[in-house]
Amino acid sequence: MLKVILASKSKVRKEILNNNNIQCSVEPANIDEDSIKISLTKEGAFPEIISKNLAELKANKISQKKNGEIVIGADSVIDLNGKIISKPSSREEAMEILKKLNGKKHHLISSVCISKNGSMIWNYTDKAELIMKQMNDKELKSYLSKIKDEDLYAYNVYQIEGIGKNLFSKINGDKNTIMGLPVKKIKEYLNNIK
Q: What is the pTM of this model?
């Protein structure tokens, strides 16, 4: 079984790796994602670039301290018409995000970066397309009331593996990508470097 370090505190990402026979220890990178997103957005970076840069920063930061070990960094962003929607910091903000997505198509972009000795050795970005059902405020409030705070602030406004899937009329893309880790490509890469 392969052993890697996951530079993320996401329980879902750890679970995806474990379910795919990739044993991982967890060491969150704790980078200031919001200021990086703001800076890159001001420079005109596309959501895919922002997601990739954040994944790379996380992986490289931990990999500098862990000589010779394989470190996986990952990041996911919601892209609504070229604008990034970040995780909510309050329930009011979560409601605003749901209203923005309501009845519309958006993309969820997940990037993964593998680093060794402080440098990226591989990366991959995948995109899924989701169309949210048209819902009224009462339905949106009812949905939000079922989401725990820790899940809301950690995983954004929906978790596709839970009741979040009920928000959508159409989902095109890999479920693991939507959950934050395109594991199929990671496995392909890791199997080649064994």
A: 0.91
d(CA 173, CA 153): 23
For the beta carbon of residue 51, count every other beta carbon within 10 angstroms: 28
Question: In this model, does residue 148 exceed pLDDT 90?
Answer: no
The question of whether 75 is a catalytic residue gets the answer yes
Rounded CA-CA distance 5/14 in Å is 10
Minimal CA–CA distance to 33: which of 4, 60, 61, 57?
57
Q: What is the pLDDT of residues 62-120, one digit of tens each?
A: 999 998 999 999 999 999 999 999 888 899 999 999 999 999 999 999 999 999 999 99
Active-site choice (32, 75, 137, 174): 75
Cα separation, 25 vs 95, in Å, equals: 34
Domains of the chain: 2-193 (3.90.950.10)
Question: What is the Cα–Cα distance from 13 to 11, expressed in whole angstroms?
Answer: 6
